[in-house]
Amino acid sequence: HNSIVGGHFGFFITYELLARKYYFRNMMKIVKRYTTSCHIWQTTKTSTVLPNGLLMPLPVRKQRWEQLSLDFIMPLPETEAGFNAVLVVINRLTKRAHFIPTTNEVTGEMAADQFLQNFDKLHGMPKVLVSDRDPQFTSSFWRVIHLKLGTKLHFSTAYHAQTDGQVERVNKVLDQLFRSYCSENFYFWDKFLS
Length: 194
Hints:
Radius of gyration: 23 Å
Order of helices and strands: HHHEEEHEHHEH
Strand order of the largest sheet: 3-2-1-4-5
Number of strands: 5
Helix content: 25-40%
Strand content: 5-15%
């Protein structure tokens, strides 16, 4: 750890280098204690986490399906029906989600059509949509449809979990469920969306 070759790297690299040639009792605990107490390592390591800012959550609506979060999960393996992406729509109040199968090549117009066909008929048009800056959401057609229907489109920014953090969390859960349900044959993931 302290040598020029060691370079004062953290626990994992130091442990791996030691474990290649040596073993002793409680080796992992000792290496961890030693590397985390190293003054040079503590003062020179780079932080991978952005500093926390003030938490300013968006106002929560009082009605269900008034405020939604949208995101795409892509690319996925292509199914027999030709789907290779999922449009995730989440109600920000109740946390209920809809998963709409789609493709990587979806345009703004196609995304709007799929949203209207699969969501609007069930719950009506929401007042606010929050999404990241996917090209499908920033297209001119998507903006025009919001002007005509009277909804607002809010874009999230990076590292602001209060805007669309829950949709990112749902994406991780959906990915985990895909892996567990479709571990044998991942080309049938669209059958498990409902």
